[in-house]
Structure formats: structure tokens, C-alpha cells
């Protein structure tokens, strides 16, 4: 079974204005309220790919209820710990370019934390746990380490999509996949990255550090796949970009979902890029029809 863990879900409030006037009254041209948080996005795209999975993490308040209802309506299995505080609202402002304002996240109590750890006791060897996104401040900076320890004890694989120290700390425990974008990769090593060769150099360091597979996403420039099986580039197909929120999460869903179905890493890479691009070309996350349409258009080349 695949589990996604979203410690800090969100209602993503997508707000579109013709032109933003700072300090003045702006009227919305269009708005949308979507369930968000990185693991939840992964679950929604896995569902499109017909890969069974369960979404877990913390949900509370009217915002948590909104997300829970949405997931139920999409037929996604969910098993969240209910919390006292409200799940955050993240603002995604589209005014020519996209500006994001993400909340810090709710207070999580000790008993709510214990309930999540208790749920993970049910993990079994062969399960894959996808740990995605930020951690609410009240959980402390090392919470992912505690979850990874549980995964390891239970013999489950884990994928981690986070940044900074939490990602560094996870590497020696052998994540199945890490997927920084090229900016996050540069930040992680405190360097400037200008060329594809430099991306490969630093991507390889993640592999040497313990990751089993590394995807470095580069938005419209596609992605690089670095693993013991080799290094490959995949182009992103051309299309009209509508939304980049969740493109990276969709890529993780495409990769992990296809790897779990086929065991073929290159097919997984192709599906990852197709899923990321399908989301970039959609208002909401990718749907199955568009992923399937884009899949054969991805050109992969060994480097
Ligand atoms: N402009 C685009 N055109 C085509 N494909 C895109 C575009 N932007 C993103 N994608 C696809 O989605 C994948 C992931 O995108 P990106 O590198 O932006 O990830 P990310 O920074 O983690 O995304 P986010 O944080 O916005 O979810 C890319 O490798 C590509 O396949
Ligand atoms: O604040 P975090 O947890 O880092 O990111 C949260 C978030 O920006 O990530 C998703 C897109 O990847 C959105 O659905 C959500 O709003």
C-alpha cells in the first residue's frame, strides 16, 4: 500500500486578478478553493493513475472538513488525525505571475502527534510512505526523522519531498526517491547551479548520500533522473501553462505510482514528467486523460 503523509495540509485559495494594485481595492476575476498540501496532491494524482493509496496527516476545523469532503467525493481513502486547530489556508495569487503566501500551520498537540505515530504502527514491509511538505512549527524540526524511524522499523520504503536540514537528515536512511527542483538543489548545497552538468554533479551527491533515485525537476525544461541505472534527461512537452502549483507533487505521484505498478524506473520517470506537465497545463491537478495524452510525447535521452 502507498501512504501519503501531509503534516501541514492546506485549502489552497487560488485568486486571479487582472492586475494587482498594492494598497488599493482589487476585484477577483476568478477564484477557486482546492484541497492542498503536498501529500494530498500526490494522493489525488495517484488516484487518477488508479494507484490505491491512503492519505494521512492532520486535519482540523472548517478547512479540514472541506478537504476531507473533497477527498471523499473523489473516492480517495483517507485516515487523518482530527486536530483542534484549523488547517491553514494558502493563498495562490495569479496576477500575470504567480505569488504564493503559505500559512505556518496549526498547533498540533502531543496527543494528536501520538495518534499519528500510532496510525503508522500498521505499516508493513513493502509499503511506501510518501512524506511531503512543510511541518507545522509546533511539531519541531526533527519530526520527519521520527516518522522515518517508524518506516524503517516496519520495513516500509519512504519518499521524502522537503528541503534543507530535514532532507539532509533523511538521506542516510535510504529514501526511495528525493525530488528537489534545481533551485532547491542549489540551496541545499549552498551553491549556484548554472549548467546541466552541475545539476548532475549535485544530484549525484544525493545518490551518494543514500537516496535510491533522484529526480531534479526543472519546470518547462523537463527533468533529470539520476540513479544507479544511469542518468537521463526528459523533455517537458510544449503546452499552455495554466498553473504550476502541484506540478512537483504530480511528478512524484507519476513516478512512485508507475514504479509500484511496473517496477520499471524509466517508465516511472516518463510518467512522472507527463504527470507534472499535465498539472502545469491544467487549472487543478492533472487528470488521467491528459497524463495519458502527454506520456508518449516525453522524449528521454541517456546522458
Ligand atoms: N512550464 C512547464 N511546461 C511543461 N511542463 C512543466 C512546466 N512546469 C512544470 N512542468 C512539469 O512538472 C515537473 C515539475 O515541475 P517543477 O520543476 O516546477 O516542480 P516543483 O518546483 O517541485 O513544482 P511545484 O513546487 O510548483 O509543485 C517538470 O519536471 C515538468 O515535467
Ligand atoms: O508550505 P508547504 O507545505 O511547503 O507547501 C504547501 C503547498 O504550497 O504545496 C502544494 C504544492 O506543491 C500546495 O498545494 C500547498 O499550498
TrEMBL record:
Its EC number is 2.7.1.144. Pfam families: PfkB. InterPro entries: 1-PFruKinase (IPR022463), Carboh/pur_kinase_PfkB_CS (IPR002173), PfkB_dom (IPR011611), Ribokinase-like (IPR029056), Tagatose/fructose_Pkinase (IPR017583). It is an enzyme of class 2 (transferase). It catalyses: D-tagatofuranose 6-phosphate + ATP = D-tagatofuranose 1,6-bisphosphate + ADP + H(+); beta-D-fructose 1-phosphate + ATP = beta-D-fructose 1,6-bisphosphate + ADP + H(+). PANTHER family: 1-PHOSPHOFRUCTOKINASE (PTHR46566:SF1), 1-PHOSPHOFRUCTOKINASE-RELATED (PTHR46566). This is Tagatose-6-phosphate kinase. It comes from Paenibacillus tritici.
